[in-house]
């Protein structure tokens, strides 16, 4: 049992594609490997999404209620 999850539930989650890591370092390496596998088109669309978010945040205002 890991974090209140039974072995049966873990097996079901693994079949669905959920990954479990033994350490944060292992998780970070897997994250970097996934990034390297992305195609140039995927990277471009992700960059465009980040740029749109950046523009939205630039236009935003913080309003403090007193």
Overview of the structural elements:
There is one protein chain. This protein is mainly alpha-helical. It is extended. The chain contains 3 helices and no strands.
Estimate the strand proportion: under 5%
What number of structural domains do the residues give? 1
Q: Overall pLDDT, averaged?
A: 89
What structural class do the secondary elements suggest? mainly alpha
Note the main sheet: none
Figure out the total of helices: 3
- Shape verdict: extended
- Give the uncertain stretches in residue-range form: none
Distance between the termini: 48 Å
The helix content is 55-70%
Annotation, overall tally of beta strands:
0
Radius of gyration over C-alpha positions, nearest whole angstrom: 19 Å
Task: List the helices and strands in order.
Answer: HHH
SSE layout:
Elements: H1 7-16, H2 24-36, H3 40-59
């Amino acid at each position: 049992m890991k974090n209140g999850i039974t072995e049966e539930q873990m097996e079901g989650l693994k079949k669905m594609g959920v990954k479990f890591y033994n350490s944060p370092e292992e998780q970070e390496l897997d994250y970097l490997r996934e990034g390297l596998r992305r195609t140039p088109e995927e990277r471009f669309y992700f960059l465009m999404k980040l740029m749109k978010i950046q523009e939205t945040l630039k236009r935003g205002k913080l309003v403090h209620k007193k």
